[in-house]
Amino acid sequence: MSPKDFVFTGRVSEAMHAVVKTVASQREDPMILPKPSISKRPAGDLTWGQDVSVTCSISTQHLGGTFTLQQTSGSFRKSQTSSTNSATFNIPQVTFSNEGSYQCQYQTRVSSRDFNSPQSDSIRLSVTGIVPVSVSDKSFKSRLQIPTE
């Protein structure tokens, strides 16, 4: 049905036109989720072996979805379902392999359809500190080119 199918005049016709236009646009336009936000605690550089938590949050009325935290150039990827508008991912005892940029994404199902948010902005995890190794660790000595006995 299109607006031209209505013969009414005046305010009724304008109201019907608005209703038809709204219904048509809802059928054509998919639901758009906003970009999630991302933060970490503690802020700043991390010390090797320190715990870090990364929180993803989104402003939406469509709760009960899944947050995914992914390292942009690495293998780290974790998902967590949340009944609220946020999820916190704990990364215990960070090492240099945890260094890099991370992004969040939110996915939810509405009326039997899946919707994905855009990727969040990136945050960077930087790890500093001395790696504890045994002095007798031959593989470590070989990487440093220290002669082994």
TrEMBL record:
<keyword id="KW-1015">Disulfide bond</keyword>
<dbReference type="InterPro" id="IPR036179">
    <property type="entry name" value="Ig-like_dom_sf"/>
</dbReference>
<dbReference type="Pfam" id="PF00047">
    <property type="entry name" value="ig"/>
</dbReference>
<feature type="domain" description="Ig-like">
    <location>
        <begin position="30"/>
        <end position="126"/>
    </location>
</feature>
<protein>
    <recommendedName>
        <fullName>Ig-like domain-containing protein</fullName>
    </recommendedName>
</protein>
<dbReference type="InterPro" id="IPR013151">
    <property type="entry name" value="Immunoglobulin_dom"/>
</dbReference>
<dbReference type="InterPro" id="IPR007110">
    <property type="entry name" value="Ig-like_dom"/>
</dbReference>
<dbReference type="GO" id="GO:0007166">
    <property type="term" value="P:cell surface receptor signaling pathway"/>
</dbReference>
<keyword id="KW-0393">Immunoglobulin domain</keyword>
<dbReference type="GO" id="GO:0002764">
    <property type="term" value="P:immune response-regulating signaling pathway"/>
</dbReference>
<dbReference type="InterPro" id="IPR050412">
    <property type="entry name" value="Ig-like_Receptors_ImmuneReg"/>
</dbReference>
<dbReference type="InterPro" id="IPR013783">
    <property type="entry name" value="Ig-like_fold"/>
</dbReference>
